[in-house]
Design goal:
- The protein is an alpha/beta fold.
- Helix content is 52%, strand content 10%.
- It has two domains: 95 residues, Methyltransferase, Methionine Synthase (B12-binding Domains), Chain A, domain 1 (Orthogonal Bundle); 119 residues, Cobalamin-binding domain (Rossmann fold, 3-Layer(aba) Sandwich), CATH 3.40.50.280.
- Strands 2-1-3-4-5 form a five-stranded parallel β-sheet, sandwiched between helices.
- The longest helix has 22 residues.
- The protein is globular, with a radius of gyration of 18 Å.
- The structure holds cobalamin (B12).
Amino acid sequence: MENAELLQKIAWNVVQGRIEAEDEGFDEGLEGQPAVTELVTEALDKGVAPADILVAGLTDSMTVVGDKFEKGEYLIPDMLAAAEAVGAGMDILTPHLLRDGVESKGRFVIATVAGDLHDIGKNIVSIMVKGAGYEVIDLGVDVPVAKIIAAVKEHQAPFLGLSALLTTTMRNMREVIDQLKAEGLADNTRVCIGGAPTSPEFASEIGADVHCADAFAAIDWLKTRGAGVA
Ligand code: B12
């Protein structure tokens, strides 16, 4: 199989929610065919760049899944099966995305804000930022404001990343930033936000330093910030 075809096949299997060859998937008669685990391993063996497998193979396909959900073709369990397939692929890719023995360039606290359970995008940013040499403190999903503030304080983090995928939860980002200001932490902590419903306009509206469209943008931004607050 050509590399491009292999990536397409991985993406297609994500949409089918198939982790391993024995999985049935959404369509009929797929059992026994290689799925995400086997195909990601094959792509790595063939020397395809891990970041290409991550973007073109695993995560771009979530847009297709989102569209199917919107049209009513997929229900929540289907969306979840696809998310789990991405997670399984990411588990295989993670060691290849991380660089060992790099001195920490600074601490980066990251969380999906309160009320929001979406973590694929956050996990990608987490892994990629770690791979770029930062010490990442990942607080998980549905994280209350107080817990985020406590972590920033405890780790004296110069960087904070916030993720939200729902229009209803993105407003909780503002609360985090307001609280950072109230506790006198805003001068020492730069905040980047991300997630599909967020935008540069929203970032400036709530007082975040930057909106990043993806993990690569986050790394570029971090590089311009050096060790933290200028
Ligand atoms: C998978 C998924 C789920 C899974 C999540 C599993 C998981 N472990 O994450 C499950 C099934 C649990 C789920 C549940 C729900 N979901 Co949902 N879900 C999705 C879906 C299909 C994909 C999201 C995703 O992972 N995308 C892939 C990743 C890689 O992209 P990303 O998250 O945007 O991240 C990238 C960038 O945005 C950026 N980024 C993200 N975060 C951050 C943070 C920082 C600091 C930085 C720098 C960058 C950054 O970098 C990332 C990497 O490039 C989207 C559709 C879509 N197209 O987004 C709907 C979607 C987000 N869900 C939606 C809805 C409505 C729900 C539910 C409310 C459904 C329900 N009725 O219960 C619940 C809410 C649960 C909750 N309280 O959070 C809607 C949201 C609508 C809206 N405008 O608010 C969407 C858009 C689907 C739709 N089209 O209707 N969902």
